[in-house]
């Protein structure tokens, strides 16, 4: 069977496919024929060496994938042959709050990822996917979907009628938009691209600002009444504006670093407005389960921009680098 890996050095050009022996499921393990994987911005950072320059190589890339069960180790009773499944982002975070150490089980980072034709998972690290979703759609859920879910529904959940701010039109933000609309919230979005602005509106965004044409977008949002929740994926370049946009008592979920990780920050509004700033690192298996129930109940489908073949992994990562995508980029396996 074939497996992709970042071979001897970081760099998109150093991702190669190689033939290896078919893996066998040991006791308590499940063998999955992977059918699709999806890209997250993190996968781009991992491949280029920016995520963890000390990461040992070779490493199988990508955290998010879905497929069907083709083998069961002894003692496995919770999965069956043919079942459609996805791996969880952190294989060891099952439920409850995040704890030190869970990050050491993150696919496509601390441990090998899912860009392979076959993969062995422990039963804890595998979850059934909603029946209305294709493999391509299901492959978008483990990181981007669960992250957006965690930000909006797990600690201080949004309520119908509240206002949520999402930034840009990437994977996490489009999921957050869909989930917020599902919950009856009003959504304000930002984007740099006029075509994407129309797409965000067609998904239900109530107001979309062009953050390149209006650098003070946070102030503009505050002037119009502000938001209750911010799904903050921009990082250093957007946090200051997010703190302006959020209302007194509101919550900012700090998730992304699209515009960098460090900068100067005026913290006055955090205390003056009694804000809650919460860090988000994807989510647990039980959050994934709750999200799947909501996806099924509301028949929500992830938004996929394009699907590449496995052999085109380098082109797919280059497309992500260009930031021309809307929603998710998927790899068919
Ligand atoms: N903490 C976690 O657990 C977690 C989980 C998932 C992702 N993340 C992080 O969250 C971020 C988003 O990830 P993703 O996979 O959704 O990314 P993505 O799909 O690559 O998102 C790309 C889009 O983000 C928008 N963008 C870029 N710079 C921006 C800025 N300064 N302000 C507003 N929007 C901007 C652009 O949208 P427009 O073209 O519309 O302008 C761009 O197309 C990344 O930093 C990623 O590492 C963190």
Task: Outline the fold blueprint.
Blueprint: E1 2-6, E2 15-19, E3 29-38, H1 41-48, E4 64-72, E5 84-87, E6 118-122, E7 126-128, H2 135-138, H3 141-153, E8 163-167, H4 171-182, E9 186-191, H5 194-202, E10 207-210, H6 217-223, E11 227-232, H7 239-245, E12 246-254, H8 268-272, E13 276-279, H9 285-298, E14 304-309, H10 313-322, E15 328-332
Helix pairs in contact: 3-4, 6-7
Mean pLDDT: 97
Using the alpha-carbon principal axes, give the shape.
globular
CATH class placement of the largest domain: Alpha Beta
How would you classify the helix and strand content by structural class? alpha/beta
Detailed description of the structure:
The chain is an alpha/beta fold and 333 residues long. The chain has two domains: 192 residues, Quinone Oxidoreductase, Chain A, domain 1; 125 residues, NAD(P)-binding Rossmann-like Domain (Rossmann fold, 3-Layer(aba) Sandwich). 27% of the residues lie in helices and 26% in strands. It is built from ten helices and 15 strands. Strands 3, 4, 5, 6, 7, 14 and 15 form a seven-stranded mixed β-sheet that branches. The protein starts with a strand and ends with a strand. The structure holds NADP nicotinamide-adenine-dinucleotide phosphate (NAP). NADP nicotinamide-adenine-dinucleotide phosphate binds next to α1, α3, α4 and β9.
Summarize the structure.
With 333 residues, the protein is of the alpha/beta class. The protein has helices at residues 41-48, 135-138, 141-153, 171-182, 194-202, 217-223, 239-245, 268-272, 285-298, 313-322; strands at residues 2-6, 15-19, 29-38, 64-72, 84-87, 118-122, 126-128, 163-167, 186-191, 207-210, 227-232, 246-254, 276-279, 304-309, 328-332. It has two domains: 2-143 and 283-332, Medium-chain alcohol dehydrogenases, catalytic domain (Quinone Oxidoreductase, Chain A, domain 1, Alpha-Beta Complex), CATH 3.90.180; 155-279, NAD(P)-binding Rossmann-like Domain (Rossmann fold, 3-Layer(aba) Sandwich).
